[in-house]
Amino acid sequence: MSWGTELWDQFDNLEKHTQWGIDILEKYIKFVKERTEIELSYAKQLRNLSKKYQPKKNSKEEEEYRYTACKAFLSTLNEMNDYAGQHEVVSENLTSQIIAGLARYVQEVKQERKSHFHDGRKAQQHIETCWKQLESSKRRFERDCKEADRAQQYFEKMDADINVTKADVEKARQQAQVRHQMAEDSKADYSSNLQKFNLEQREYYHTHIPNIFKKIQEMEERRIVRLGESMKTYAEVDRQVIPIIGKCLDGIVKAAESIDQNTDSQLVIEAYKSGFEPPGDIEFEDYTQPMKRTVSENSLSNSREGKAEPKFGGKSKGKLWPFIKKNKGAAPEDFSNLPPEQRRKKLQQKVDELNKEIQKEMDQREAITKMKDVYLKNPQMGDPASLDHKLTEVSQNIEKLRLEAQKFEAWLAEVEGRLPARSEQARRQSGLYDAQTAPTVNNCAQARESSPDGSYTEEQSQESEVKVLATDFDDEFDDEEPLPAIGTCKALYTFDGQNEGTISVVEGETLYVIEEDKGDGWTRIRRNEDEEGYVPTSYVEVYLDKNAKDS
Which sequence ranges form a coiled-coil region, renumbered to this chain (predicted)? Predict the structure, then answer.
């Protein structure tokens, strides 16, 4: 099966077919190239998707990823990022192993095809030239034969004519001989050209064309084999990343299996535990018996026409902290607005973050120092003085971060050192209450009390309990005169006072101040004789009377 023998007369069709074969190669290259673009685009979209749902650094969202379910989701995002990387690998391998190689091969095939068909056209032109020479010699032989016949006939005519001179007859005879010789020469030339053409034609159809077509056939078969190999490589490129993609999927499954609802429940406790104990029972107040009253300065009671509203009920104390958290003012830098246990955690977290930043800056300083040493030893690599400014800047950053860390460490030490001593403070404050009975209540009963430095006296130690003498509210409200106003205040924000001891205010409203903030973040105000209670200090702007300040 040879194109040279079977397709000896299909030069033009073979030229079209081989061009079509090259077009097929280029079409396949284009297909693979578009596939690589799709893989890259898909990988980019997967990476963007993974990045979009990654927790933002130093945000509340990052804290949520302590939970096992969120950790599993984060692992899924990371695995998807790796998954995207495998699609990038597919794109890179298709480009390097198929597109680049095939593109070079196409150029080689084009050049080879051009050379083969150039040789074919050259052979065609040669045989055509031989054919033209043969035709020319044939026509000349034919013409000379006719001329010789006419010259012979003219001689015979002249020789038969008695009126023609002997000289004219001789001239005719010579002319006939010349024409006859010319015919013989043309015959020899024609015969020679014919033999030559037949030889060239045999070589053309049995040697030159078969050899050229054989080379073209081999070129075309190599093209077909190369296309098949490229298709196998196409599949192998995908097959190579399947194990890694499987590992990514296994990682997602493993992450899902690591979710532990019990751990997440415990983390919720750790995240929101205030450290307070639940309030004790409220004692029955017998209004039928005269009782000695003792009024606490910091009580949350409301005077409503002789009606007493207990300040230390379980409902009110259980909801004071949420109000503080909803404070629209800026949170204090030392987290003093948080319950003790939560404050300690926040401070510890801040100290850890600062220490990490310090370590990072120190590593950077060490790297710059090493680079400077390299520059000193090899000046051609760079100017050592160019790094002095960066070294100074990094050293200043380290010093600034260390001062910041020391500040938070001091606050942390203060919190950790103060917690055990607060029970004694609470006991001293409990002396404000002078009552008939002295039942023991939990630390939360004194959560509204403030220490002299303005920090909260909430107690989360499970070992210590504060004994507070219960107040008899009946006499307190029966005999107490309304507290005088010591100034006014303007509400900066709307506050819904839904808990016992609080009062709701509307933004822009003006009210009377009857008790200043004792350091616990609450101010006692009055709207009229019947409505008074506590609001967050940051929700109001206080204007104290000058006389009240002097007193």
Answer: 344-371
Q: What is the dihedral of CA 232, 238, 241, 245, to 10 degrees?
A: -150
Domain 340-418 has CATH 1.10.287: yes
Please report, to the nearest 10 degrees, the dihedral formed by the alpha carbons of residues 50, 56, 57, 61 taken in order: -120
Classify residue 457 as exposed, middle or buried by CB count within 10 Å of its CB (0-12, 13-18, 19+).
Answer: buried
Q: 444: buried, middle or exposed (CB in 10 Å: 19+, 13-18, 0-12)? A: buried
Q: What is the pTM of this model?
A: 0.50
Residue of 158, 476, 446, 207 whose CA lies nearest to 320? 446
Q: How many residues does the chain have?
A: 551
What's the count of helices (H) and strands (E) in the chain, helices before strands?
15, 7
Kindly calculate the radius of gyration of the chain based on its CA atoms and give it in whole angstroms. Answer: 54
Task: Quote the CA–CA distance of 290 and 292 in Å, as a whole number.
Answer: 7
| Lateral strand order in the sheet of 532-536 | 532-536, 522-526, 510-515, 487-491, 540-544
Q: What is the pLDDT of residues 54-108, one digit of tens each?
A: 887 776 776 777 889 998 999 999 999 999 999 999 999 999 999 999 999 999 9
Architecture field, domain 487-544:
Roll (2.30)
Residues 53 and 23 sit within 8 Å (Cβ to Cβ): no
Q: Which of 227, 161, 176, 327 is nearest to 21 (CA)?
A: 227
Could you give the angle at the alpha carbon of 9 between the alpha carbons of 6 and 11, nearest 5°? 105
Summarize pLDDT for 427-484 with one digit per residue, the tens.
333 333 333 333 333 333 333 333 333 344 433 333 333 333 333 434 444 445 677 8
Structure tokens at 183: 């015919």
Superfamily of domain 3-263: Arfaptin homology (AH) domain/BAR domain (1.20.1270.60)
456 secondary structure, DSSP code = B
